[in-house]
Amino acid sequence: MNLPKLKGDKKPAGNGGEQSAPPPRRPRVGLALGSGSARGWAHIGIIQALEELGVEIDVVAGTSIGALVGGAYVSGALAEFGDWVKTLTTRDVFSLMDFSFSGGVVKGEKLFGFFEEMHSNPNIEELTQRFVTVATDMKSGREVWISKGPVLDAARASCALPGLFSPFQHQRRWMLDGGLVNPVPVSAARAFGADVVIAVNLNAQLVGAHLSRQRPPDTGDGHGEEDRSVWQKMMGYFAAGDGEDPGFFDVVASSVNIMQDRITRSRMAGDPPEVTLIPLLEDFALMDFHRASEAIDEGRRLVERHEGDIRAWVGSPHADRV
């Protein structure tokens, strides 16, 4: 007797077996690169270590220094950029600072102009990865996501730390540092399509840290005494007169750390990332950009310590793309 075929019966495959299910879709991975001044060089080591693990990054969202490093990455210049920042000395950092007291101590034009001369500056629309930076509209105080136009303009608009870097005019609006509203841009990474977000929080555990440990330039080229004299004069202007009261950089750095820590806690509680990476760089001063090697190495170590969690969320690096 022929029994009727049940609705749930599977059709035989051509090889006599059952049809196999399609392979699972690879999750779209997003990086949320947070603000944190010189500590942001850790982003370089983190990205390089993720790539070495085979993690494919689809979306990059950056705030402040995270926007700059993220811009170098999506432009294909991260390796060259990383090699360059490792060579920076205090004298080099000082030479890239165009001191001004119009909106901030540093205008930033020399730094970003030098970067543009060294590296390409494509439009975001031309990139293979999705890229967005976070800035703050100075007039309205609103959070602004920049996802069109030249990569460096988008990064520069996000890098205007109050009291340090001057505001940047973008599309006729003055922009302040994105860390004022979204220090670790998890929400932006999700909005641009990320299923799994790896967030880098540079400001955790920094509240109360003393951050004015700037050192005089040490170039080893016979001009050390002159450099130290210039550095000491500059630091003398910003530091406390009696060595006990908080100096300029103490006030700026501590205020920013407190603000960003509180904002980050609040925002990440409402929209937590799948993986949070916190570099242990609490001894970094606000302007320690010459210590890139230390930060990059810590970024690499951080990925190694969290490799299990990262692989658990990202899955096999060889899963099929859709």
What does this structure look like?
The chain is built from eleven helices and ten strands. 37% of the residues lie in helices and 14% in strands. The protein has 322 residues and is an alpha/beta fold. The chain is globular and about 70 Å long. Helix 1 packs across helix 10 and helix 2 runs antiparallel to helix 6.
Compact description:
With 322 residues, this protein is of the alpha/beta class. It is built from 11 helices and 10 strands. The strands form 2 sheets. Strands 1, 2, 4, 5, 7, 8, 9 and 10 form an 8-stranded mixed beta sheet that branches. A two-stranded parallel ribbon has the order 3-6.
Q: Which properties best describe this structure?
A:
14% strand, disordered C terminus, disordered N terminus, two-stranded parallel ribbon, 37% helix, 11 helices, 322 residues, 10 strands
Beta strand count: 10
* Main structural class: alpha/beta
| SSE series | EHEHHHEHEEHEEEHEHHEHH
Number of helices: 11
Taking all Cα atoms into account, the compactness measure Rg is 23 Å
Low-confidence parts lasting 5 or more residues at pLDDT below 50? 3-14, 210-217, 219-224, 226-231, 237-241, 318-322
Distance between the termini: 46 Å
Percent helix: 25-40%
- Shape verdict: globular
How much is the average pLDDT? 79
Biggest sheet overview: 8 strands, mixed
Strand content: 5-15%
